[in-house]
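Please produce the structure of this protein holding MTE.
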Amino acid sequence: MSNDRLLLSRRALIGGLASTGGLLLAGCTDQQPPTYGNILRMGDNLTYNLQRSLLSPTGLAREFDRADITSMPATGTYDPARADGTFYDPKGGKDYAILRTGGFANWRLQIEGHVARPGSYALADLKRMKRRTQITRHMCEEGWSAIAEWTGVPLRAVLEAAGIQPSARFVEFYGFDQIADSLDMVDALHPQTILAYGMNGGDLPIGHGAPLRLRVERQIGYKSVKFLRRIVVTDVFRDLGDIRAGWAWYNGI
Ligand SMILES: Nc1nc2c(c(=O)[nH]1)N[C@H]1C(S)=C(S)[C@@H](COP(=O)(O)O)O[C@H]1N2
Ligand SMILES: [Mo]
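Below is the modeled complex.
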């Protein structure tokens, strides 16, 4: 479909919704995504607007039973230390190789920005905090899905420990590869948004993001950043998605 036709059909869809549910959409006008106005990210407007209006902010993604767990491929970067990896970062890759050799004993998660207590957390610190286990369906933009069990600390608990400030509007996540992404506060504080260190009852494997990855269950798979090294709380939106140009910032499922 050409861009023009895509635009037209989106307008028709929005128009149709407005006539059947004018009241509903009337409440949406103050809910534009931060990518509003970026022509490459027009899709964000529609999905963000609708999902933020229709879904309760704390509505849960479906959770499954242990019997539902499937195999799951490790995709994208599956080893940040490998120079031939898709999103290899020379500095991050070198740091990662050293930390992995030490069994991640010296790994720390940096937290900075709009928090009263910027600092860092060792894996043991995170494991002492509130814990949540959830069996959820991961949906990749490439069209496959898989069900796995994730264990970790709710992001909310970590943000609260760091003293998140009222000025906070977005939370940015940086991996040891070139991948970085961000969430708004609705997703950041959602009960199923966790920093996972465990998968299917064991430690989080390297391929799936060791030692710590994000799980954000109400958006598509690429939002769950693996191999975390740094979290930044901001009051402004920064588009960190350049490397995956054209992928929506908001992609609810
Ligand atoms: N740091 C980092 N995080 C990432 C990726 C990546 O390449 N690097 N790939 C994303 C994509 S597209 C998907 S589908 C999932 C894959 O998670 P898995 O390897 O555990 O299946 O991780 C996401 N998080
Ligand atoms: Mo993906």
